[in-house]
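FORM 12-B: Structure-to-Sequence Request
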């Protein structure tokens, strides 16, 4: 077995508890407890797409490994149709984050596998975080016992960010990259590009590279030239 990847490579540096903008009231302490305390209260995060569920799941794994404990992250979309095999491979981990339960909802074999995993992880003293786009009753789960187990978890609800919240995210990401993102540039981005947060963050990565290549600050004229042509403007 080869050496483990350094933590910075295993989990994106942008996705940490301390970089999560506008966390739900009272939500972070419970998640942080999962990382450090054996037999902490299991947590279920519900929220629409792009509300930060994956950010928090990865942040939990990073925080767990910083404590010298073992963490596993499993996107349920990747396990759909073979959940039993994927979940049985998670034995021995201290903390497990299962991201996107809606991916297996309605598949009876996968639901039974998740129910069995839940009971097994409880018996073994593992800490578990679930995320999904809705609360258990909204997922279309066909197994009542599974719904019941999931309803017993501490629930954290994530709401979509408003424009000011998107500004805060972009400012935080820009600051971590050493970029200065002025209010006028933020206004332009929010009124002339997609407001989807994931698309905005990806666009910031593109702008970071373009500004570095052109040796230019990210100003409104720079944005007009860069995004209008799809190429960095001349220096």
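FORM 12-B RESPONSE
SEQUENCE OUT:
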């Amino acid at each position: 077995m080869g050496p483990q990847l350094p933590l910075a490579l295993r989990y994106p540096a942008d996705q940490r508890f301390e970089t999560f903008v506008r966390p739900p009231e009272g939500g972070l302490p419970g998640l942080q407890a999962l990382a450090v305390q054996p037999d902490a209260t299991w947590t279920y995060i519900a929220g629409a797409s792009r509300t930060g569920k994956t950010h928090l799941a990865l942040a939990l794994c990073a925080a767990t490994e910083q404590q010298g404990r073992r963490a596993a992250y499993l996107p349920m979309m990747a396990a759909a149709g073979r959940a039993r095999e994927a979940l049985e491979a998670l034995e021995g981990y201290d903390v497990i984050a299962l991201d996107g339960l809606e991916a297996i909802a309605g598949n009876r074999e996968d639901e039974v596998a998740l129910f069995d995993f839940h009971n097994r992880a409880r018996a073994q003293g593992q800490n578990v975080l679930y995320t999904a786009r809705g609360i258990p009753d909204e997922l279309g789960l066909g197994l009542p016992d599974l719904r019941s187990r999931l309803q017993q978890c501490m629930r954290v609800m994530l709401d979509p960010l408003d424009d000011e919240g998107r500004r805060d995210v972009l400012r935080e990401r820009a600051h971590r990259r050493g970029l200065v993102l002025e209010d006028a540039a933020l206004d332009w981005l929010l009124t002339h590009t997609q407001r989807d947060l994931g698309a905005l963050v990806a666009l910031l990565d593109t702008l970071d590279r373009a500004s570095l290549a052109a040796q230019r600050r990210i100003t409104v004229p720079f944005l007009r030239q860069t995004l209008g042509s799809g190429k960095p403007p001349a220096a």
